[in-house]
Design brief:
three-stranded antiparallel beta sheet, two-stranded antiparallel sheet
Length: 189
Amino acid sequence: MNSVKIGDQEWMAQNLDVSLFRNGDPIPEARTPEEWRNAAKEEQPAWCHVDNNPENDIVFGKLYNWNALNDPRGLAPHGWRIPADEDWEVMITDLGGDADAGGKMKGKELWKVPNAGATSESGLAVLPGGYRCYRGGFHAVGFMGCFWSLTEINPRYASSRYLYSHNTTVRHSRSGHKGEGLSVRCIRG
C-alpha cells in the first residue's frame, strides 16, 4: 500500500479499493439503485464501483456507504484505520487550512476544467470520483472528490470532506447521509 507523510500523519496515497472486510467477510456490492437504497434503508454496509463500472476502480477505488466503514468487522486493512474529523483537521491544517489544502491534495488528472489550484504537492493525488446519492444515482464524477469521516453526527448523518474542481477549498460537511457512497482514504494507526 503506497502512503504519504503529511506532518506526523501517514495517509494512503490512493482511495480504498476492497470488497472484503478485514476479517475476510464479503462486503455486499449494491449495483442497482434499488439495492443501494435498500442498503441505506436497512442500515447495511454496501460498496459500488464509480458509475457501476469496474474499470473505474483502478482510478477511483470503490465508493462505500457509512455503514461499511463503521462495521465492526473492519473496513480498513490491518495497520490502517478510517480517519475521524480530528485526523482530517490535522492534515488540512498541515496543508495550510480549509481554503488552500484542496489544491495541494488534488491530482492534476481527470478533473474537469478548471482544476483550480491543483498542485498535488501533498502526494495524495485526490481524483474526482464524485459520489453516489442514497437514492442510488451517481453525481459529480470529474467535479468532486468526496471522502467519509468516521465521525457520526446523529443516527442519520455523518461527517465528510469534499474537494471541488473549481476551487482549492476543502469543505467539511456535517450532513452527509449515511446511505451515500463516498470514497475512503485511510490513515496509519
